[in-house]
Amino acid sequence: MKSKILEILENKGNYVSGEEISKEIGISRAAVWKHVKKLRELGYEIDSKTNEGYKLIRSPDRPVEFELERMLDTKIIGKKILFFEEVDSTNNKAKQIALEENDGTVVVSEMQTSGRGRRGREWHSPKGGVYVSFILKPNIPPEKAPQLTLVSSLALVESLNAMNNGLNAKIKWPNDVLIRGKKVSGILTELSADMEKINYIVVGVGVNLNTDQNNLPETGTSLKLEMKKDVSVNLFLKSFLEKYDSVYQKYLDGDINQIIKLWKDNSDTLGKNVKIIGINETYEGLAKDIDENGALILQVDNKEIKVYSGDVSLR
Ligand code: BTN
C-alpha cells in the first residue's frame, strides 16, 4: 500500500489530495493518512497542505525495503530483501534463515557489530558502508561452490565500472575489489552442504560506500573518497543487485567459461609476480591463470602449482 501511495505521489510530482489517493487505491482517507505517517517515520519527506493534499519532497537515502524493491528489476536476486539498521553479521543472519528462504534472498544492513572477514578476521563495519549477504541455492556439486565467489566479484566490479566509467575497479585474487590499488570491498563465501548436495551458499559482500578515511585502513578506500561525492545507497544496491542477477543467471545457464573470461579481463593479479601467504605456506611466483573453480595457477620456477586461498601481495 505504501509503495502504491509513493508511486502516485511520484508520478504526480505535485500535491495530490487524500481523496484522490484513497479512490485510486481503494482505501479510506484515514488509512491514507496513516500510511503517509508511516512513510514519514521511514524518512520520506512528505509535505501536506490543507485543501491540496500530499506532496513527496524527498525519498530517504537509506536502504528502505520497498524503496529498493520498487526500483529493482531482477528475476532471481532480491525478490525478497531483508533490511536491518544493525546486525551482528549479515552472513550470520542469512545462515540463520537460509533453509527456509528461496534462491536469491538478500540480507542488507547499514552496519555490523561483528562483521567477519576471510580467514577468521574481523571486518570493521561502521555506518557509511553497506553489508550485503546473498542466499544462493544453485544446483551444483559442493566442490563448485567457490565459483559463486567469482560470480560475486565479477558482478560487483562490473556494476562499479558501469556506475562511473572513471572508477576502473579491479579484482585482486581471490576476491577483493580494488580501486587505484586500494580495497573497496571484500567477499566472504560460506557453504552448507553434505557430501554431494549443497544446502545453501551465503556470499557476504562488504562495500565501503560512504565510509570516511578515518574509518578505513591505509590500504582501503571508499566509493565516496574515489568519486568525491556521496553515493546513494539505493542506487548502488540497484546497480549491484541487477548486475548480480544477470551474472547469476548466466552462471545458472552453464556459462562459467564466459564468467571466467570476464573475471580475467577485470583481474588485477594475473600476469604479475606475486607473493601469496597461505594458511601453512608462502608461495612466490607468476600469477598465470585461474582454473574453473577460481584456484590461482602460479608459475614457480619451472613448475605450475595451484593455490586455493591466501593473501596476495606484489613482489
Ligand atoms: C574479506 O575481505 O576478508 C571479506 C570481508 C567480507 C565482509 C562481508 S560484510 C557482509 C558479510 N557479513 C560478514 O560478516 N562478512 C561479510
Blueprint (SSEs and pairs):
Layout: H1 2-12, H2 18-25, H3 29-41, E1 45-49, E2 53-58, H4 65-71, E3 81-84, H5 90-97, E4 106-109, E5 130-136, H6 147-163, E6 170-172, E7 176-179, E8 182-193, E9 198-207, H7 223-227, H8 233-252, H9 256-265, E10 273-277, E11 282-290, E12 296-300, E13 303-307, E14 311-314
Parallel strand pairs: 3-4
Antiparallel strand pairs: 1-2, 4-5, 5-9, 6-7, 7-8, 8-9, 10-11, 10-14, 11-12, 12-13
Helix pairs in contact: 2-3, 6-8, 6-9
Bound molecules: biotin.
**SS content category:** alpha+beta
Low-confidence spans: pLDDT under 50, at least 5 residues?
A: none
Spell out which ligands are present. Answer: biotin
Distance between the termini: 58 Å
H/E order of the elements? HHHEEHEHEEHEEEEHHHEEEEE
Outline = elongated
Q: In order across it, which strands form the biggest sheet?
A: 3-4-5-9-8-7-6
GO molecular function, one term: biotin--[biotin carboxyl-carrier protein] ligase activity
Keywords: ATP-binding, Ligase, Nucleotide-binding
Pfam families: BPL_C, BPL_LplA_LipB, HTH_11
EC number: 6.3.4.15
Write up this protein.
The mean pLDDT is 93. The strands form 3 sheets. A 7-stranded mixed sheet has the order 3-4-5-9-8-7-6, sandwiched between helices. A 5-stranded antiparallel sheet has the order 13-12-11-10-14, with no helix packed on it. Strands 1-2 form a two-stranded antiparallel sheet. The chain folds into 3 domains: 1-58, Arc Repressor Mutant, subunit A, CATH 1.10.10; 65-266, BirA Bifunctional Protein, domain 2; 272-314, SH3 type barrels (Roll). The protein has helices at 2-12, 18-25, 29-41, 65-71, 90-97, 147-163, 223-227, 233-252, 256-265, and strands spanning 45-49, 53-58, 81-84, 106-109, 130-136, 170-172, 176-179, 182-193, 198-207, 273-277, 282-290, 296-300, 303-307, 311-314. It is an alpha+beta fold. A hairpin with a 4-residue loop joins strand 10 and strand 11. Bound molecules: biotin (BTN). Biotin (BTN) binds at residues 89-91, 112, 115-118, 121, 123, 131, 133, 176, 186-188, 204-206. Biotin binds at residues 89-91, 112, 115-118, 121, 123, 131, 133, 176, 186-188, 204-206.
